[in-house]
Amino acid sequence: MIAPGATIGALQASLPLDPLENRILLCHALGLSRVALITESERALTADEASRLAAVVQRRQFGEPIAYIVGHREFFGLNFQVNDSVLIPRPDTELLVELALERLPKHGRLLDMGTGSGAIAVSVAHTRPDAAVTALDFSGAALDVARANANAHGAKVRLLRSDWFSNLEQERFHLIASNPPYIAHADEHLARGDLRFEPNIALTDRADGLSALRIIIGGAAAHLEQDGWLLLEHGYDQAAQVRELLEAHGYAEVQSWRDLAGIERASGGRIAARNS
User: Fold this and answer.
1) Binding positions
2) What is the C-alpha separation between 234 and 264, in angstroms, rounded?
3) How many CA atoms lie within 13 A of 222 on its CB side?
C-alpha cells in the first residue's frame, strides 16, 4: 500500500522493486520526466497519484513486463509502442537490423517476416528511407501496433497480413529478414519471467523450435532476387542446425553472427542463382 502524502524522493528509496524499475514506474504513474523526479523529490503524492503508482507496482510484482506496463520499449535508438499482442523488442535483435542494413542495396526491397511491433522493418525504413520495406504478420493486432510505430517515426513501411509466404504472390526482395518463433514447445523458459506474458504464438512454434525456420528457409528462395540475402534470428543453441538447413537449400556464404553476449544469435546465406 502506498499512502498519499509520501514524498517522491522517499518512494524512490522504498518501493519494493529494482531501483531502475522504481524510477521508470514513478515516471510513468506520475507523468514525470527523470529530471522532475529530482526537482520534485520533496513533493507529496496526492491520493490519485498514490493509487496509480500502487496499481503499476502491483502489476510489476505479479511479473508483468515493464514494457507492457509503460507501453513502450526502446529499440535501435527508437521508441516502440508495445502491448501484449507483440513481443517486446530486445537488444539481441538489433544485430539482425545491423546485418540487414549492411547488405541491403541502394533502393533495395526488404521483407520483414513476422514483424510483430515492426521493430526490424521500422528501424530499417527509418535508417534507410531509400529502401522499399514490406512487413508481414499473421496477426492483425500485431500489424496495428507495427502501423502505429511506423507512423510515429515517419517510416514508410508497407504492411501485409499473411501466413508466412501465402499472400506474397510472385514478389521478390533483395533481402528477407525474420525473427520467427523459435522456442521449442517444452522449453521451461516459456513459463518464466517476461515470456509468461508475451504472445505464445510469437515465441514458440509449438514443436521443436525449428518448424518456422524450416518454412522460411524453404520458401524464401522463390522470393529473393539473385544475390539476395536471407537473415534469421534463432535460439542460442540453434546456429548449427540453421546453417545446415540453409546449406541444404543451396544458399551460399552461409554463416552465423554473434550478439553482444558472444552467442551465435543470427544466421544467413545468399542466393547465388535466381530461381525461376
Assistant:
1) 114-118, 137, 164, 179-182
2) 8
3) 10
Least trusted range by pLDDT, from 82-86, 121-125, 187-191: 187-191
83-270 architecture in CATH? 3-Layer(aba) Sandwich (3.40)
Lowest pLDDT segment from 4-8, 121-125, 204-208: 204-208
Q: List the domain boundaries for the chain.
A: 8-62, 83-270
Exposure string of 231-265, with b = 16+ CB inside 10 Å and e = fewer, is bbbbbeebbebbbebbeebebeebebbebeeebbb
CA distance 132 to 138: 20
CA angle at residue 167 from 161 to 172, to 5 degrees?
A: 110
Residue 169, pLDDT above cutoff 70: yes
Q: Cell numbers 505479479 label which residue? A: 62
**How far apart are the C-alpha atoms of 130 and 24, rounded to whole Å?**
36
Angle, vertex CA 93, rays to CA 76 and CA 143, nearest 5: 80
- Is residue 276 scored above 60 in pLDDT? no
What residues form the annotated binding site for substrate? 179-182
Annotated binding site for S-adenosyl-L-methionine: which residue ranges? Answer: 114-118, 137, 164, 179
CA distances from 234 to 8, 152, 204 (A): 42, 28, 11
Residue with C-alpha cell 504492411? 159
CA dihedral 147, 148, 153, 158 (to 10 degrees): 10
> How far is residue 92's CA from residue 199's CA, in Å, rounded to a whole number?
18
pTM of the predicted model as reported, rounded to 2 decimal places: 0.93
